[in-house]
Amino acid sequence: MFTITEIWIEQHRSDRGGWTKDQCAAIGVAWPLVQGWKRAAVGRQISDAAKDRFEMAMRSRQARATATLDLFG
Length: 73
Fold this sequence. Notes:
By secondary structure, the chain is mainly α. 11% of the residues are buried. It contains 4 helices and 2 strands. It has helices at residues 6-11, 21-26, 37-41, 48-72, and strands at 2-3, 45-46.
């Protein structure tokens, strides 16, 4: 089990400063995000699989963006 922290949430935001719908689902947060969602999520325990899903959602998105830049850059 993994305990969600604000630092961890912030470390996995997009380059534009947001989070994906899939990331929210991984940590049990409703989409679209509403004020106070981070405060509600911090301290919640999630499975290692959910932690990996949250982290990988942004890595996958960034990898696709990099591949697109490489093709047209």
